[in-house]
């Protein structure tokens, strides 16, 4: 990941920095030789040799020294290139600082130092370099500022990035393009509160500019000021009744206010004015589906499915509609038509699950296996999905073999180790299961999933209950509102005889996750307290949602033998 970030910085700021530095050109060597600096010539050649054999730390150090000695900015650039390729942030910063001393007016050096200090987490230094950059470079357009934000936004915590970008507001408090870029970045990073004042100032400076008004409305919406957003947009729409984006933004405000009829009217107005507006049609379809109007939702999605650009999205939601309506074959067909895009993987997983549910487990597993062989990015997730299907089909040994093969390539993959532990639990090989969970906790001592799974397994087996309680409590510290962990804690307390405590945690879990297992656990706890009528009521609620769940049916047989 670190190399990826450095490559992004280098590729954006310095031509060629994402590749190893080539040998110094003869002209550079000749220039040094002509000035009688034989020691510098030797150092430069040694730096080249170090780079060629992959010793980028030595290469960066020697290039930096030669650059300072010869006052040569190009050699300093070469030093930065070597350090970046060697993934050495401090060395890259040292080389860039040398470059800046040699060439104080270099925009590239200032820009590079801003990004590198930000990556290192030194926000104050990054701000200082950003101020220098703003003084050196003429940011004359919105795109200039947006490019800068995109360049700096490389897996940096949002608060840190925006703290550095505050230098924009300090240096250009009344530059509309700077205000726009900052406000857009803040809203995109989920920090809309930081865009409140800048977006308000932007609208003061550009009261008649559509983009300024729409951005301000978005900030108001994200900061909980929906009434102000609604008033702003309604006023604008009185004079711009055909402005689709403003009306769609108003619809989102109305949805936030739970005015579903108003939102539906807004979508319909946009579609009357522009039947080809795919955003409005999709939003109208999803709202109709949410309100239970499947016929309208399906009709809108079928229209979208005829649009090549929207077909994948439309087919995915058509598949979900069919699945929710209990038409698995129709759902499988629609999911199979999703060929790419953000919903492709979800459609593939749903299709495989439906195939398995229809009795064709082999087809579902084969579908996932074929996709895994073609995807590096999603290979582990697809493999885990195969394992889940095999477990559902009572093929635990086959699932174990599949995961073992993957672990041979990635022995410390926590996802794979966790998946195998669940398989081993199914096979009642508890000691081996604990070994995998222990290994996960060696890698990540605060892994809530591993702590919870280990503790719950012990509790469910009625073994080492104090240890189980400790493990689950540690998991809850990491994830206090996780319903699965709350359920586990309730269950271990039940096993230990604390029925009041067990009920409290299980009710909390049920309020967050109306899952069959939680219903079953709570019903059993109530039954153990002698509150059989309450237990039957809880059980009935669970069976209404999951009528064939074996855990619920098992508790039912205890209540009504």
UniProtKB/TrEMBL annotation:
One Pfam family recorded for the sequence: TPR_19
**Which parts of the sequence are annotated with region: Disordered?**
540-561
| Cleavable signal peptide | 1-23
Superkingdom of the source species: Bacteria
Which InterPro entries has this protein been placed in? CellSynth/LPSAsmb/PSIAsmb, TPR-like_helical_dom_sf, TPR_rpt
Coiled-coil ranges per UniProt: none
Q: What is this protein called?
A: Tetratricopeptide repeat-like domain-containing protein
Positions annotated as TPR repeat: 244-277, 516-549
Organism for this UniProt entry: Immundisolibacter cernigliae
Keywords of the record, alphabetical order, are: Repeat, Signal, TPR repeat
């Amino acid at each position: 990941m670190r190399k990826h970030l450095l490559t992004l910085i280098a590729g954006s700021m310095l031509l060629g920095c994402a590749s190893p530095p080539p040998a110094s050109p003869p002209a550079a060597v000749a220039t040094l030789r002509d000035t009688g600096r034989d020691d510098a010539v030797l150092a430069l050649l040694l730096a080249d040799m170090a780079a060629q054999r992959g010793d980028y730390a030595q290469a960066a150090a020697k290039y930096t020294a030669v650059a300072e000695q010869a006052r040569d900015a190009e050699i300093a650039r070469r030093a930065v290139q070597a350090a970046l390729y060697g993934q050495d942030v401090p060395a890259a910063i040292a080389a860039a600082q040398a470059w800046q001393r040699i060439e104080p007016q270099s925009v590239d050096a200032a820009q590079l130092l801003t990004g590198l200090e930000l990556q290192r987490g030194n926000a104050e230094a990054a701000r200082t370099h950003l101020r220098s950059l703003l003084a050196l470079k003429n940011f004359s357009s919105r795109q200039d500022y947006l490019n800068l934000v995109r360049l700096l936004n490389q897996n940096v915590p949002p608060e840190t990035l925006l703290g550095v970008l505050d230098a924009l507001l300090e240096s250009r408090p009344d530059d509309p393009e700077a205000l726009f870029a900052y406000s857009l970045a803040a809203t995109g990073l989920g920090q809309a509160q930081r865009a409140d004042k800048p977006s308000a100032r932007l609208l003061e400076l550009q009261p008649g500019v559509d983009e300024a008004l729409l951005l301000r409305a978005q900030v108001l919406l994200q900061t909980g000021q929906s009434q102000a957003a609604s008033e702003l947009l309604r006023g604008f729409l009185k004079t711009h009744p055909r402005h689709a984006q403003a009306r769609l933004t108003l619809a989102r405000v109305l949805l936030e206010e739970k005015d579903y009829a108003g939102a539906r009217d807004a979508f319909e107005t946009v579609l009357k004015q522009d039947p080809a507006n795919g955003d409005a049609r999709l939003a109208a379809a999803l709202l109709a589906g949410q309100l239970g109007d499947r016929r309208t939702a399906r009709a809108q999605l079928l229209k979208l499915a005829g649009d090549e650009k929207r077909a994948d999205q439309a087919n995915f939601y058509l598949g979900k509609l069919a699945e929710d309506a209990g038409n698995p074959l129709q759902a499988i067909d629609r999911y199979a038509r999703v060929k790419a895009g953000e919903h492709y993987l979800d459609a593939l997983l749903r299709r495989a699950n439906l195939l398995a549910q229809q009795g064709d487990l082999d087809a579902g597993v084969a579908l996932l296996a074929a996709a895994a062989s073609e995807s590096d990015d999603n290979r582990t997730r697809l493999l885990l999905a195969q394992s889940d299907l095999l477990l559902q089909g009572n093929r635990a040994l086959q699932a174990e073999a599949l995961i073992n093969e993957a672990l041979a390539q990635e022995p410390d993959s926590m996802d794979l180790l966790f998946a195998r532990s669940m398989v081993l639990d199914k096979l009642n090989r508890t000691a081996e299961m604990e070994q995998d969970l222990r290994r996960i906790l060696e890698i990540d001592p605060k892994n809530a999933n591993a702590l919870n799974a280990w503790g719950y397994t012990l509790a469910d087996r009625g073994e080492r209950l104090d240890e189980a309680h400790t493990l689950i409590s540690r998991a809850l510290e990491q994830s206090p509102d996780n319903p699965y962990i709350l359920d586990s804690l309730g269950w271990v307390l039940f096993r230990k005889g604390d029925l009041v405590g067990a009920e409290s945690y299980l009710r909390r879990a049920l309020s967050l996750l109306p899952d069959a297992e939680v219903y079953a656990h709570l019903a059993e706890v109530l039954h153990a307290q002698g509150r059989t009528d309450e237990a039957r009521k809880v059980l009935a609620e669970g069976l209404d949602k999951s009528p064939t769940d074996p855990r619920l049916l098992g508790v039912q047989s205890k209540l009504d033998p």
